[in-house]
Each structure stands twice: as structure tokens, then as C-alpha cells.
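Appendix B. One record, verbatim.
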Amino acid sequence: MTEQSLAEYAEDMLNNDGDDAIYDLSGYAYWDMIREAVPELTEEDYPVFNCTGGGRSFDKDMVFDEVYNQELLDEIIKYES
């Protein structure tokens, strides 16, 4: 959890993790188990799995070509402001 702004948080992440900051490797230990259970999920065809979890994904100044749920976007902007 953080009370930093998105810019401050991103700067801290880049300072601490460098280029690795863009990858969420928290589920890395499970990749081999997943591929063993589902052999068609090869590393070549599926090199990265999306790891669910927390994290800041939004910015108050986001702009979209199309918005599907304006009420949700308004709520996100409220929290990010």
C-alpha cells in the first residue's frame, strides 16, 4: 500500500527494480507447474502469464478513445485525484 502519487510510486519502482519493474514475476515459481499441467502452454507461445494481484493501474489524466463504463471511470478518477 502507498499514499504516494502514481509518478512518485513509479519513480521509486524504477529506482529500486530498474527495467525489471515492468514485469510482475510474483507467480514465476508456478510457470513450470502450469506448463506441466497444460503442455500446450509452451514458453515460446505463452512467455508471460498475467499475475492477478494489487497494484496501481490508473492515472487521473487517462484518456480513452471509447469508454464502456463512464461511472466506473469517474470513480477511478475520483480516487486517483
